[in-house]
Amino acid sequence: MHNLKIIFKYMKKYKYRYILGILFLIMVDILSVILPLILRDITNYFVTNSYSTNIIIRYILQIALIGAGISFGRLMWRYLIVGSSKKVEYDYRNDFFLHLEKLSLNFYNVNSTGNLMALSTNDLPIFINGIGSGLVLLLDTFILIIATGFQMFRINTGLTLLSLSPLPLTAFILFKIGIKMQRRYLKVQNAFGKLSNVIEENLSGIRIIQSYNQEESEIEKLNKMNVRYKDLNISYARLLSIFNPILENIGTICYVIFLGISGTYVIIGQFSLGDFIAFNSYLWSMITPILTIGMVINIVQRAIVSFNRLEGIKLEKPDIFDSKTKDIDSLDGSLQIKNLTFTYPKNKAPSLKNININLPKGKILGIVGKTGSGKSTLTNLLIRLYNVPDNRIIINNVDINRIPLNTLRTKIGVVSDTFLFRDTVTENINFAYDNVDMDKIIEASKNAEVYKNIMDFPEKFDTIIGERAVTLSGGQKQRIAIARALIKNPDILILDDCLSAVDSKTEISILNNLKAIMKNKTSIIISHRISSVQYANEIIVLDNGKIVEKGTHEDLIAKKGFYYNIYINQQLKEKLSVEA
């Protein structure tokens, strides 16, 4: 019942189109029911009367008008009902995608991209087909059975009851088979989602697969999934194939009963030839929609399964949302972190332990540490990709949980992921805005020290970046990502290990540009390279989620502790690379 309410909510927007379409459908079915009555009258006329041209012409005109009305009505209900279902698809697809974008990062940690793609590209059209073609077939079947059944009872009640006596048993059998079909189709769709995920991963990682010569291994993995999907489809098809033979046999039995009884009635004079022809037409009109019940059940069952899968995702609630937020449109101020301990969902050990940081406005904080020390976790919490305990992160004297997400993510510029879209360089840098301001785009690219590289591209700023930016070097990707953050003119800038692929000279130039840009703003530079953070006002050293050292570059070198060891090792590596 709940699912029906959701479906009706989307259909309600186009209710007048649906209502008008249904009226045209009813008109078509009524005209279809009238036609056998005219054939009965024609037959009885020829049996009992002499030939009359005027009467024949009148009957011909009646049949022609009814045929034209049926054709026009079918055109209109298809346009209105099926057309409206496409409008519903448009609305539902937008809502589904919008919901996906609102879901928190943790949702994507446990749900595969391939399965979500299968829902969007496979389940959604199947569901829409159910409220389009499926709805039409269902209504058409129901209306025809009622209308033709009424006329059959009018002609001869006893003959109607005898002719249709096998139908209740048929309905029971089909109901039982329908339940099994729904279960099997759910397995088919789940298998399709897993198959889509394997294909998506292989296409995304094709360079790695080819580099490691693992084509045959991946083909074998895909083949196993493909065989599973094929077997489930065959299992579903076997069950579906039972429908038509049952319905055809039932239809034949009904017709045999009719011929045996009505033929006798005609011979003994209790049934006119016209009534025989009309009843025969009505019986076939009754049997025909019954024969399509298999198709209707197939469409409806598949639509129900697909809709339940879609709604299963839409019932997912975002972990991160605004609650008791204040009217804040700026983050221009200090950053404080107080006794912050954080554990990722489903993890046992905390990733951050008792973190305390005080970063005044206009200052630069450097964070260094080994891989897995908790550096990126801190970035994720500062933009609330995961929930933060209350009063642990304070920005401009406001708890981060009271700052609207829109303000938080608009006013913080983050470069932690160098993912670039398959679009122009312009659109990638200007990602945060709808309107293009080339002056700002060029300025941001210059500050990120990538302008000269862009001007060397074939189409300069109009160059299309390949999928996952495979046509760019690591340094170019990082610098375009930096430009994407700088164009926002953020109140807080976070660079999360985004200079690792940049040479030392370019790194110094970028950092000097950032000092001027962020002079009166707050900056956080996270890196495993000392050279990226050594000019920060304060540096903290993370190890296993804890702050193990804190101070300026000179202070930490003088301590000859954890930071000093990292610095010496990096200096040695640089020296060896120069000598080599």
Structural class: alpha/beta
Average of the residue pLDDT scores: 80
Radius of gyration: 36 Å
Count the beta strands: 10
Count of alpha/pi helices = 21
Biggest sheet character: 6 strands, mixed
Q: Could you estimate the helical fraction of the residues in percent? A: 55-70%
Strand arrangement across the biggest beta sheet: 6-7-8-3-9-10
Strand content: 5-15%
Note poorly predicted spans. none
How far apart, in Å, are the first and last alpha carbons? 73 Å
* Shape type: elongated
Describe the structure.
It is a single chain. With 580 residues, this protein is an alpha/beta fold. The protein is built from 21 helices and ten strands. It has helices at 2-12, 15-48, 53-102, 105-110, 113-155, 157-163, 167-204, 206-211, 215-268, 273-291, 293-314, 375-382, 405-411, 425-429, 438-447, 451-456, 474-486, 504-517, 530-533, 553-559, 562-579; strands at residues 335-342, 352-359, 364-369, 393-395, 398-399, 412-415, 492-496, 522-527, 538-543, 546-551. It has a six-stranded mixed β-sheet with strand order 6-7-8-3-9-10, sandwiched between helices. A hairpin with a 2-residue loop joins strand 9 and strand 10 (546-551). Helix 2 runs parallel beside helix 5. The protein is elongated, with a radius of gyration of 36 Å. The N and C termini lie far apart (73 Å).
